Amino acid sequence: MTAEIISVGTELLMGDVINTNSAFIACELKGIGVNVYRISVVGDNSARLTDALKTAASRADTIILTGGLGPTQDDLTKETVAEYLNLEMIFDKSSWDNIVETLNKRGRPVTENNKKQAFFPKGSAILKNNCGTAAGCAVTANGVTYIMLPGPPYEMEAMFKNEVIPILTQKSDIRFYSKTLRICGVGESAVEDMLNDIIASQTNPTIAPYAKTYEVHLRVTASAASEKTARALAAPVVDKIYAILGDNIYGEDDTTIEDAAITLLRETGYTIATAESCTGGLLAARLVNVPGASGVFMEGVVTYSNEAKIKRLGVSPATLEQYGAVSEQTAKEMAVGIAKGSDTNIGVAITGIAGPGGETNGKNVGLVYIAIFLNGQVTVNEYHFTGDRTKIRDGSAQTALDMLRRVLWRLKRE
Amino acid sequence: MTAEIISVGTELLMGDVINTNSAFIACELKGIGVNVYRISVVGDNSARLTDALKTAASRADTIILTGGLGPTQDDLTKETVAEYLNLEMIFDKSSWDNIVETLNKRGRPVTENNKKQAFFPKGSAILKNNCGTAAGCAVTANGVTYIMLPGPPYEMEAMFKNEVIPILTQKSDIRFYSKTLRICGVGESAVEDMLNDIIASQTNPTIAPYAKTYEVHLRVTASAASEKTARALAAPVVDKIYAILGDNIYGEDDTTIEDAAITLLRETGYTIATAESCTGGLLAARLVNVPGASGVFMEGVVTYSNEAKIKRLGVSPATLEQYGAVSEQTAKEMAVGIAKGSDTNIGVAITGIAGPGGETNGKNVGLVYIAIFLNGQVTVNEYHFTGDRTKIRDGSAQTALDMLRRVLWRLKRE
Question: A279 vs B288: CB contact, 8 Å cut-off?
């Protein structure tokens, strides 16, 4: 199977939006063994899209389009594909019901132009959109399957996983099995160095490392005539990787590092509270990403000012005076203070300089202290992050989660 | 002038790397009035690249290529362009000197394959690389200019600004001016409805709406012989849009909604504290996005549990018992409690059901109350968000920021 991806949207040609959709789709397609030889971007222009469809159809048997399914005049993907394939546009009642329901729920008016989103090229399979009003569709003509997906990544990604993957795997008789191992605390090149021999010697399964923000994901993909056989091929290689990387692997597949941390909190029966300065709530927000986190995450405070650190956390004014707000000592007192004040077993504190301003003598932008109070003991680590304000803050929250899950992991093993 | 962008690299087709280069280049080109009608990605494959060059040259007068200028065998952009244009590859002594110097500085060995990076299609202007060994080049043949740039964004971006922009502005005599108006609280189709007549009747400037997450951006772009004239063409249309959309517009160009809120807090001299339940710190983190927010943002608490709501915010147990944690009454008491406890003028509180669990009798996932305490008065709004946990939480934080900046805006005008 050979696929091409066409992203439709003038905003992409203007550079207003970075095309993350193509990377997502390419990555998913690789996981099920579909080759992508070409990715294109065209604007909201029917003639140019038709031109792109023509060229793509001459080379590929599967064309995946994203964008242009909205309610406005310049959304013309479905209409252009229908015209190119000489198909009528057909009204789909159940899509229309979903649109009305979604708009009602949001308290938005149902306008005449919303109706556009309920029309599809004749013969299409409708791809449900659980996150918005733009349903997708898939239609096959002259041996080429055209799959039309919405542009917003959130809607597109869910639709791709739930609706498109089943269609594509049905078309092929090779079955894939893949497992992603998620690593934090080791860089991509270090991971590659550690696994050099296995990566080089493996052809089935293949092992592919992906650098993510402060993480590395390692995807092991095996192919065979059945999923069972593919799974059996992958298993010993996964075991080998675990033996080498040990607890640098924090989880598998869709498990995030906050999932891993919350699960360990539940398993150990510990409760947690957070105190944040430069991250301003990012760590708490990551913990609350996990549904039901309230069972173990008692509370978080964002003490951005010194006053708040003193009043809410009991940090001593003398400590702030002598060592500064960004110091090992302050981090320690914040961690102890939040745990005591919230009556939790664990207190995690972050204080640092996210920039662009805030440098003081000897303390540079990127300097961050992370402290964990646990069982009467405090561990503090000093970090030097690089990049802009956002990157430093994201790195700090991520690293705090990594420290936390490592501490809990050791505790659980003991 | 019409340009196409071709990104070369198998890692892009595999989804391992997100194509940020194309967005950067497109954005830069827009700034100097060059239209981009197509962006493509091809792998490290000479035949497929030749194919892409042929198609692009039939449509555009400027082709910008990124990637494939490295020292290894699969780096073949310059070689493929030379072959396609039937040009010899010529050795450039000064580029070679730069390569040797750069490698020496980094303590890397100079190997035979590095020499590849000092060869360019005959007739090329060499584009200096101040950040690496891969020089770029520009060559014109049959009225089409081929600009070849390195793949690493850091090297490419510097080269584009320093070397490519001067070449391209020389070629064009049209100047552009554009302004983006940022809107929150009204959906994309409603914005279009309100502006239908202006959008339809305008050709210079053009008006383009972009749906963002819980926002709409409206870009007004004018072109003329000078930037001053372009600016003068845009101004009355921008005024008209302001007259229609009013304070639904929260800011211009790069101003985020948290920037707008923090600016208004500074202007009004008010201080703020936040109390969050389902958003778990997202609102605080958004405020702390703004460098120097500490002047007005005193503190935030994440009171995910009922205990924390009682202890930290003074929410009455009777209120929680009678109305539940997700209620107008609880939101109100949270907002009052955080403002009083933090001694700020303003308290913002969010409580809601982000799902997937947590539905109780009559209260569905997506129900969120946002309360703002200000000058002794509390305003509470009830919202019904759709989507998954992340979307509901992002929508809640965004909407709280929108409520906040609207309240402050009214205050400022009074």
Answer: yes
